[in-house]
Amino acid sequence: MTTGKKILGLLCVNILWLVCCIPVITAGASTCAAFAVTLRLADDDEEVSSVRGVLQRFFKAFRQDLLQGFLIFVFTLVCAGLGGLFIYLALDYGLNLIIIGLLAVYFLVALVFNFYSYPLIARYSNTFVNTLRNSVALFAQYAKPSLKTLGIVIIEAAVLALTFKFYFLGILILPSIIFYTISRTAKDIFFKLENPPKRVEE
Questions:
Q1: What's the rounded Cα separation, in Å, for the pair 103 and 38?
Q2: Residues 71-88: pLDDT tens digits?
Q3: pTM for this prediction
């Protein structure tokens, strides 16, 4: 798949994601659907090499993952809400190295639970609890590429936040780039899981 087709695909994904997030309660399903496409873009899958293919893949995944997407989105909101509460309490109490360290640990744990959850829902059928468990397990098992990807995503998210001062221009493309960044790592991990090395019989 050419770079031009990937960029066009990411633009389409971003528009679809934004539109389908408008009802808010569908934001989780929309994010899972976006990953369903970006995982295939990362794998150079011809299924999503056209706008039509992206549309079909996105809305098929959106319908399939409506419930699971809603549940994981609620979980993400709870994590974010607790994080905001902890920051508020920390600022009220007074920041020190111990509190800053505890906040850092909390947000890292919350990110680990959420990091692969959306791609996992986009790729596999599983229960909500097992999806969270598998997200943590994959992050721990593949810590080095996961941490590297997380660092890149944090930079991309920071750039996205900075663009809010410039008429929100970053929102038009950066979310799908973040999804694609995670998808590149996730698809390699999924490939290893789905194609374990054959054991040589003695």
A1: 31
A2: 999 999 999 999 999 999
A3: 0.90
